[in-house]
Design a protein that fits this description.
CATH topology: Rossmann fold
Radius of gyration: 15 Å
Distance between the termini: 10 Å
Structural class: alpha/beta
Shape: globular
Largest sheet: 6 strands, parallel
Order of helices and strands: EHEHEHEHEHEH
Number of strands: 6
């Protein structure tokens, strides 16, 4: 079994709760990849992320934890490449949502897809975490994404975007589902 932890738009592999979760998993002797994906306008797009993601070991024993734009990227990648995985844990995922600002819209739009529900053909265990007060992505948008992919949902009260900015340098709740 191996894990992949994936950051969101303009993000860093060293940001938020990712280093903490990587340590939690490695302390239990799991293999963990936390790739730095291309970020920024002109660099972050589906093709560049796919190129980086394809370097990782992804198979039916892989658990992927993805934040923000990364959940919809993961869905699109797995569907397009017909790859099955063991478990998907999505945090603040969304699809087909524009309006954060022009830079975010520019880098997020190539990640979106119309056949989101098809992800269920590539993973039987999908869990979604999102909060009731995300300042970037409206609650209804995150709930709609979660409703399309999973009936296992955890709503974090006052969790913001479940990132360092909203106090998440650790994410204890995710340990319930990560193993």
């Amino acid at each position: 079994m191996n894990y992949i932890i994936l950051h969101g738009s303009f993000g860093s592999k060293d940001g938020n709760w990712f280093p903490w979760l990587k340590k939690q998993l490695e302390d239990r002797n799991y293999k963990v990849d936390v790739p730095q994906m291309p970020v920024g306008v002109g660099n972050q797009n589906y093709d560049n992320w796919s190129e980086e993601f394809s370097k990782l070991e992804i198979n039916e024993k892989t658990i992927i934890i993805a934040h923000s734009i990364a959940p919809v990227f993961v869905c699109k990648y797995l569907i397009n490449n017909k790859i099955k995985v063991k478990k998907l844990i999505f945090v603040c995922g969304f699809n087909n949502y524009l309006g954060i600002d022009s830079d975010f819209d520019n880098v997020n739009k190539p990640m979106f897809l119309d056949n989101l529900e098809d992800i269920k053909n590539y993973c039987d265990d999908i869990i979604c975490y999102y909060s009731d007060n995300d300042p970037y992505v409206k609650f209804d948008i995150e709930k709609s994404f979660a409703d399309k992919v999973s009936d296992k949902q955890h709503i974090i009260a006052n969790g913001g975007h479940i990132n360092a900015e909203s106090g998440y340098t650790q994410f204890e709740e995710i340990l319930e589902e990560v193993f």
